[in-house]
Amino acid sequence: MQEDEVLGKAYDGTLMRRLLKYLKPYRWYVVTGILLSIAVSAMEAVRPYFIKQAVDVDIKASDPHGLLMTTLGFCALMLVRGFIQYLNAYLTQWIGQKTIFDLRMEIFEHLQHLGLKYFDRNPIGRLITRVTNDIEVLNEMFSSGIVMVFSDIFTIIGILSFMFSMDWRLALISLSVLPLLFYGTFLFRRKAREAYREVRLYIARINTFMQEHITGMLVDQVFNREEKAYAQFSGINGQHRDANIKSILYYAIFYPGVELIGAIAVGLIVWYAGIEALDGAVTVGTVMAFLQFNEMFWRPIRDLSEKYNIMQTAMASSERVFRLLDDTTKVADPAEPVALGTVRGDIEFRNVWFTYNEPKDGTEPEWVLRNVSFTITAGESVAIVGHTGAGKTTIISLLARFYDIQRGQILVDGIDIRQVTQADLRRHMAVVLQDVFLFSGTIAGNIGLGNAQIPEDRLRAAARVVGAHRFIENLPGQYAGVVKERGATLSVGQKQLISFARALAYHPRILVLDEATSSVDTETELVIQEAIKKLLHGRTSIVIAHRLSTIQSANKILVMHKGEIREMGTHQELLTMGGLYFKLYQLQYKDQELPTKR
Amino acid sequence: MKPLLRLLPYLRRHRRLLVTGAIAVVSSNLFTVVQPLLIGRAIDVLNAVLQKGEGATGSLAWYAAAVVGTSVIAGIFSFLTRQTLIVASRHIEFDLRNDFLAHIQKLSLSFFQNTPTGDLMAHATNDIGAVRNVVGPGIMYPADTLVTFVMVISVMVTLDWQLTLFALVPLPFVSYAVYRLGKIVHQKFEARQATYSELTTRAQENLSGIRVVKAYVREQYEIGLFRALSLDYLTKNLVLARVQSIMWPLMFLLIGFSLILTMYFGGMRVISGEITPGTWTAFFVYLGMLIWPMIAFGWVINMLQQGSASMGRLMKIMDTPADITDGPGTDRSVTAVEGALEFRHVSFRHSGAERDTLSDISLSVPAGTTLAIVGYTGSGKSTLVNLLPRLMDVTGGELLVDGRDIRTIPLDVLRSNIGYVPQETFLFSETIAENIRYGVDGGSDAGVREVADIAQLGKDVTEFPHGYETILGERGITLSGGQKQRTSIARALMRQPKLLILDDALSAVDTYTEEEILKRLRGVMKGRTSIIISHRISTVKEADMIIVLHEGRIAERGTHDHLVAQNGIYAELHRKQLLEDEIEHL
Questions:
Q1: What is the DSSP letter of A204?
Q2: Vertex B204, ends B200 and B207: CA angle to 5°?
Q3: Which residues of B touch A132 (CB under 8 A)?
Q4: Which of B270, B276, B304, B322 is the most buried (most CB within 10 A)?
Q5: SS3 state of residue B323
Q6: What are the chain A neighbours of B376 within 8 Å (beta carbons)?
Q7: Quick one: A401 exposed, middle or buried, by C-beta within 10 A (0-12, 13-18, 19+)?
Q8: Vertex A70 angle, CA A69 and A71, to 5°
Q9: How many angstroms separate the CA atoms of A508 and A345, rounded?
């Protein structure tokens, strides 16, 4: 949160060069935008000229026809200018949006290829901010920012050149207030920004307080703290009000101040015109044109000072975005990968050591797995049991190569999994995680995960095999039925069955299953047990088992404890050993022999 | 617009500022309107000098000074306007936000269970902000517009009413265009925001489910989906850009027509000698002055509509009645609570639920004894204890405290005698000492240390950077689950309650520390009533009475030995935990 608040300088060469690269595909549009801006500015500057023409030539000569022509010319100018202004405004937005689209896709694609380690370290909320907020900020710079800076500068130049060509002395006189305007604007911007920052600070405090005391409202109530909390809130709320009132003061001085500076310029023009008039060196038209110029000058100057703020936030955002793009926490694919081809499904863990956090100073890390070795022959099913924190889930993550191991080897069909691409490896396995993750979309979409190579009837067949077909048929919309965010409308059991169907639809050779612990009603439980049996049938499988039925049907059981394999064997063998497994069995699994009793 | 009437009491409270502001707006505009007149006169003088060669240019300096002078006076009033009207709007925002909090503080658990925190936050920030806009700019700009309008037009009419008519024809279209386009922009903006939140949700889902995405090699597909949404967002943005892009050029064009009409017809009248060039110039300046009010007019109408909708949403919350309060049955003479509890066929059902969460609970807890409650998740344990501080009221049967109906005891008396340690520990981002002192007025440092020691927190605190003054939460340190629970226990003990409720309050504390806490608690809780909910047998076995809740009913009751002998749910739990201990020690 705080990281996102820091504002630095408004210009950083390295960052800027890198940002400008994103404009490169649209460089001709940018050039067009700048040209159009110049055209608009030129026309803006020409406007008072028509009035001068009307006064000094047409009216002086009492020429109604000339006045009509001048008016029509003015009319045409307004129309053309309006049209070009519209085109230009749209074009600049278009450039910004296109650039932002490219950048957003680049970040998203980059995120898809980062290793899980990166996601373990970075809260999702922060990553989302990169893909959304930070990029929106850059939009402003890409669209209005760059093109409008040119436009404003050209407007100012245009107005200046007209003024000087008409009457350079009057120009100098009317511009003499400019330093005052610049200084005033600069001072105001700085004060206003400070005040704004203070307001933001108090808003953040109000929000934090509100959030905290709404969440903790019961504590406030039970501890009779309502009045004190109210007083405290009222204090922060008051500070927020006062900060705002302070910033109102700046605005209250600034706006009339600008008007006053304008009035001073008008006064100077009128006064000096009088002096020049004595020599006949000035015309009424010139004076009127100058009065118009005086009004037009203010806008581009104000805009330019706003650009400073835009640039400042854009720099801060782009720095964060680029830091994300430069992160290379990845599980790397080999340069010359071996193709797995058809997989039989032999798995071997050979003296595997693994830790999530490798200490940088070379000290002995906290191993999550220590010297784990086992083999699974193709078609076999293996159950892993053990207490929480024993390292069961880690084994699964390693087999799918979500992380790379520090020591040892993991082999599939005798090939080290680091020699094949991750896509190739994972294509042959299906991983069912403990917390079923459903995407918002349709039921079918959640089974096939949008894989076009899995036809609709294969999805249905998979659902039928795992016994999900029955409840899906009863849903409104059936396979096209809507799944809300995280499958909010489905029961725990239904979600599990969908995840089973998902695994099966991918026809994996190797099945990895982390059984959910949450309890479901007896009927669903029986359906799930049946489904698991079918899932495991005929393929190599590793199951983190919580169900007695799953364990009993496994060919082999690995008993893990504190990162090591303590016991290995079949259910009966391990029971007769009377060791760790025996105790785990009594604690976790024995009750399940009588499914009617809780 | 009707909800905005509810703002009247707030406006009345700050009427002095508002009235001063109204006067300032009028005065400021009076002096601004004079300026074009002065400029017009100056141009006429100049024209006369140029055409007739008369040397009267000294008066021009006087006009110049007058322009600056009126600008100064107008500026002072304009300053005053902002210092009164806009300041008043900030005061009203302050009042509204305070009232909002004061009101929701009175609402009960069920309200918060049914209203997402995010919604309440949005009311407190966005909606109150929209209402403030109505009070501040919503009053200032219309006042500004009206005054400028009346004055400028009356001056223009006296100068030349025919030219005024010509010049003003396009201006109503400006207001109308701003109003219409503003509405369309608002719609397109909402549509864009909707897509934006879809995009955000998609990113959120994708990143939360990144394991599934990777496991099934769906990265490319996900990228495709995100690209489609991004493209949609791009399109919506460009649609919005199209409307917004047309806004200003159209505005200038409409205003341009005013200028063109003034230019031609005004010019013709100058040629025919009906008006002077100075008057003509003044018309241009006046037109310039009317542009902004006309734009503001359309803008303000949109703002009023949005403010009214926001006020409506706010009022919906403010009109929610507080359901658990002192009532006519409250006996004000009750000033103390002894802690004897009696449940008589108590049942509880959440509003809208089909089944009772608690049914037919009959139970007596004499003052000074300890009651322990065990049972599976969802068996109603927390609901049962939530009835005691009246976070919820019973929906059937009677709950008696010291022999009287709990609803007759003043709420603050009842609650100030209860030390409540909720299941989900909630601490505030303040110092540890402040958190422990949360439920008492004052509270000495020695007292804080004493209860912290009982809760076995003292030793941990000495290791924190600033001891008891260490700040918790985002800006400070993060406590472990066990430390949080122990702080929460210390907070409850600090009140020296007659009734202590521990709702699974030791779950994250290790067994050794738990033992210590319980030992010390037995000392301080002598003569006070305690209710302990726990999953651990070790926590509850010493209680005077243990009840086992199952599906909202009392399934077993008795002492530890008695229940173990019964060989029911409790005995089963007991056996499992013995095994668990054994495995822990392998």
A1: H
A2: 135
A3: 196, 199-200, 203
A4: B270
A5: coil
A6: 598
A7: buried
A8: 90
A9: 10
List the end-to-end C-alpha distance of chain A, in Å, as a whole number. Answer: 46
DSSP string of A318-356, one letter each residue = HHHHHHHHH-----PPPSSPPP--S----EEEEEEEE-S
CA distance B35 to B39: 6
Pair of tokens at residue A326: 């430069």
Report how far residue A455's alpha carbon sits from residue A475's, in angstroms, rounded to the nearest whole number. Answer: 21
Whether chain A has a CB inside 8 Å of the CB on B578: the answer is no
- Report the chain A residue with the minimal C-alpha distance to residue B62: A271
Cβ separation of B64 and A208 shorter than 8 Å?
no
Q: Nearest CA to B489 among B537, B450, B431, B442?
A: B450
What's the burial of B93, exposed, middle or buried (CB within 10 Å: 0-12/13-18/19+)?
Answer: buried
Residue A72, C-beta contacts closer than 8 angstroms, at least 6 positions apart: none
Domain ranges of chain B: 2-318, 334-416+500-509+529-586, 418-496
For strand B529-533 and strand B499-503, is the pairing parallel, antiparallel, or unpaired? parallel
Name the nearest CA neighbour of A202 among A224, A235, A169, A162.
Answer: A235
Interface touch B579/A583, C-beta < 8 Å: yes
CB A170 within 8 A of CB A289: no
| pLDDT tens figures, A123-162 | 777 777 788 778 887 887 787 667 777 777 877 888 888 8
The answer to whether B334-416+500-509+529-586 and B418-496 have equal CATH topology is: yes
Q: Give first-to-last CA distance, chain B, whole Å.
A: 72
Q: Are B496 and B458 in contact (CB under 8 A)?
A: no
Q: Does B484 touch chain A (CB under 8 A)?
A: no
**Structural domains of chain A, ranges and CATH numbers in brackets:** 12-166 (1.20.1560.10)
CATH dotted code for B334-416+500-509+529-586: 3.40.50.300
> Chain centroid to CA A327: how far?
16
Q: Which residue of A has its CA nearest to B219?
A: A112
**Dihedral sign from CA coordinates of A401, A404, A410, A415:** positive
Q: How many CB atoms lie within 10 A of CB B586?
A: 11
Q: Token digits for A502?
A: 């998902």
**CATH number given to B418-496:** 3.40.50.300
CA dist A494 and A502 (Å) reads: 12
What are A569's strand-pairing partners? A557
HSE-CB for B179 with a 13 A CA cutoff? 14
Does the predicted interface ipTM exceed a cut of 0.95?
Answer: no
Of A284, A425, A500, A594, which to mutate for an interface test with B (greatest number of B Cβ within 10 Å)? A284
CA distance A584 to A442: 40
CATH fold, domain B2-318, is ABC transporter transmembrane region fold (1.20.1560)
Would you state the structure tokens that stand for residue B359, as one six-digit string? 């049914």
Instruction: Give the pLDDT of chain B (586 residues) as one tens digit per residue.
Output: 678 888 889 999 999 998 998 889 888 888 887 887 788 888 888 777 777 766 566 778 888 889 899 999 999 999 999 899 889 999 999 999 999 998 988 888 888 877 777 778 778 877 888 888 888 777 777 777 787 888 788 888 888 888 888 888 887 887 788 888 888 888 888 888 778 878 877 887 888 778 777 777 788 888 888 899 889 999 998 998 888 888 878 877 887 888 888 888 888 888 888 888 778 877 877 877 777 777 777 777 777 877 888 888 888 888 988 888 888 888 888 888 888 999 999 999 887 777 888 989 999 999 889 999 988 766 888 889 999 988 888 988 999 999 899 999 998 899 889 999 988 788 888 889 988 988 888 888 888 999 999 888 888 888 888 888 888 876 667 777 788 889 999 999 998 899 999 988 887 777 678 888 888 888 888 888 999 998 778 788 888 999 998 888 998 999 999 988 888 888 888 887 777 666 655 5
What's the token pair of residue B248? 């200003």
Other residues' Cβ atoms within 10 Å of the Cβ of residue A70:
24
